[in-house]
Design brief:
heterodimer, A: about 110 residues, alpha+beta, Alpha-Beta Plaits, two-stranded antiparallel ribbon, 6 strands, about 35% strand, B: about 475 residues, mainly alpha, Ammonium transporter fold, two-stranded antiparallel sheet
Chain lengths: ~110, ~475
């Protein structure tokens, strides 16, 4: 099992959901986040004060998947999330040691 | 011809022939329309402070400090209203000397007679027209309250709650009350019965009233007074930790916009209610308040668009407040196009006040109390001297209260009078503020600890969080 962590532009969430649903993904966890990458910093003005704002809004998505569909899911996420401009985000894939479905007690791949 | 009109015409003719015998015996009865308008105006000004000013300021600070701002406004307002009824009204609006009133109405003594049920009357600006004095006192209470709450913006996010309240008590007593008395206290139009009493009646009025300074609703008394006190406070309290290095943008500009809108709506009571009756002067003040503010919103937005590339919500809201401040002394004292010009200039000048001037002053005036209220008040007070004249379609002023003759002063003359009043207010307020902040510092200390400031005033001063999710 792998944990796919995708950090994307907030408005791409709907597209991501549709894209991974087609591949059999049955759940995900989404949080609102801030972040920056190579495009760090932009200026905002509030009355006379200019502020250099480092962080931009991001959406942080976590999906636990079986090894077999890791690649298609990662590709699908990357394709729908890409705009071509700086700030598109990143996807990380990490290993999951164990998973458990709370309601039924199923463990392992059956829990993803 | 019917019987009623014949009799009333006879009485009218008789009355003009024998003024001494005429209807003067009947005590003037306040007009219910005037009462109703003044009651509503009072309500509108309360709305300006709670929640108008509270939200306007609240949205501009960081989320960890919003409750502290709301508290300082709500509790501060309540405190000042209480003090007003204990002694403030008396020392502002009863006869005393040129600087301060007397103790005749301390504890609102005599504001109505419990045994006879009589309610003494307060003069308006029209002979024979009165409102109950208790209503005038209530209306003015809201002015005292909002003035003291305006100052809060200058030292937001770092001052102890106890120190804020202490400063308000002291400054209210030694600055608001005298300035209100000097600018607004006079004996009323009916005291000017004939030419022989004019000098004596003038001598009983406040100093700046005697000078002929025009301040319809409080450009000096409220805005310059608070603006200068705020600036002095900002210097004495010192800059916020991290000021200039860390970003401290407003946490909720929606609150700020709602607050600014409530201020605009409520300000119609502030300005038009200062006419003290539901007559022509109130209607002029009403339209002027409407138009000047709209002009200021457009002007600030245009300047910001041109200089920074975008017109922002904060800019539009700030423009509105700047226009409202500038039109305050002018509302019933200038013509309609004069009001528009005042508003537009306020939008431009106060934009400079919160940017260029702010950098020059080098104070952390957190919410631009001086940049908007101080500078806008000074601008409005001076421009009142320009646009009051009938030659610029202004309403002019009363040059003789015995005959109620309306005329105009030459513009340089009136502007000079305005400037002198502005100068006195600035100096008086600054000294009073210095004393107030110094005393508070000695008694309780002005600032919270650095750690408390970092964590936020809401948790440290009030043991509360605004946003728990």
């Amino acid at each position: 099992m792998k944990m796919i962590t995708a950090i994307i532009r907030p408005f791409k969430l709907g597209d991501l959901e549709l894209a991974v649903a087609r591949l059999g993904v049955q759940g995900m966890t989404v949080t609102e986040a801030h972040g920056y990458g190579t495009e760090r910093g932009h200026a905002e003005f509030y009355r006379g004060a200019g502020y250099l704002i480092d962080f931009a809004p991001r959406t942080h998505v976590q999906i636990a998947v079986d090894d077999a569909i890791v690649e298609p899911v990662v590709d699908a996420i990357a394709n729908v999330s890409r705009t071509g401009r700086v700030g598109d985000g990143k996807i990380f894939v990490t290993d999951i040691e164990q998973a458990l479905r709370i309601r039924t007690g199923e463990i392992g791949v059956a829990a993803t | 011809m019917n019987r009623n009109s014949w009799i009333s015409r006879a009485v009218a003719v008789f009355a003009t022939l024998t003024p001494a015998l005429a209807l003067a015996d009947a005590a003037p009865t306040p007009d219910k329309g005037d009462n109703a308008w003044m009651l509503v105006s009072t309500l509108l000004v309360i709305l300006m402070t709670v929640p108008g000013l509270a939200l306007f300021y609240g949205g501009l600070v960081r989320s960890k400090n919003i409750l502290s701002v709301l508290m300082q406004v709500m509790v501060g307002f309540s405190l000042i209203v209480v003090l007003w009824c204990l002694y403030g009204y008396s020392f502002a609006f009863t006869e005393g000397n040129a600087f301060i009133g007397g103790s005749g109405r301390v504890f609102m003594n005599g504001i109505f007679e419990p045994y006879s049920g009589t309610f003494p009357l307060a003069a308006t600006f029209s002979k024979g027209v009165y409102i109950p004095e208790i209503l005038f006192a209530a209306f003015q209470a809201t002015f005292a309250g909002i003035t003291c709450c305006l100052i809060v913006g200058a030292f937001a996010e770092r001052m102890k709650f106890s120190a804020v309240l202490l400063v308000m008590v002291i400054w209210f007593t030694i600055s608001y009350l005298p300035v209100a008395h000097m600018v607004w206290f006079w004996m009323g139009p009916d005291a000017y019965t004939d030419a022989s009493v004019v000098d004596a009646m003038n001598a009983k009025a406040g100093l700046l009233w005697q000078w002929g300074a025009l301040d319809f609703a409080g450009g000096t008394v409220v805005h310059i007074n608070a603006g200068v006190a705020g600036l002095v406070g900002a210097y004495m309290v010192g800059k916020r930790v991290g000021y200039g290095r860390e970003p401290m943008p407003p946490h909720n500009l929606v609150h700020t916009m709602v607050g600014a809108s409530l201020l605009w709506v409520g300000w119609f009571g502030f300005n038009a209610g200062s006419a003290l009756e539901a007559g022509n002067s109130a209607t002029l003040a009403f339209l002027n308040t409407f138009l000047a503010t709209a002009g200021a919103v457009l002007a600030w937005s245009a300047v910001e668009w041109a200089l920074r590339g975008h017109a922002s919500m904060l800019g539009a809201a700030s423009g509105a407040v700047a226009g409202l401040v500038a039109i305050t002394p002018a509302a019933g004292n200038v013509g309609v196009m004069g009001a528009l010009i005042i508003g537009v200039l306020a939008g431009v000048v106060c934009f400079w006040g919160v940017s260029g001037l702010k950098r020059l002053l080098k104070a952390d005036d957190t919410l631009d109390v001086f940049g908007v209220h101080g500078l806008g008040g000074i601008l409005g007070a001076l421009l009142t001297g320009v646009f009051n004249t009938q030659q610029l379609s202004g309403p002019g002023l009363v040059t003789d209260w015995v005959t109620v003759t309306v005329g105009s002063n030459p513009i340089p003359t009136q502007v000079l009078i305005q400037a002198k009043a502005v100068g006195v207010t600035i100096v008086w307020s600054a000294i009073a503020a210095f004393i107030a902040f110094k005393l508070a510092d000695l008694l309780v200390g002005l600032r919270v600890s650095e750690e408390a400031e970092r964590e936020g005033l809401d948790t440290n001063e009030h043991n509360e969080r605004a946003y728990t999710n």
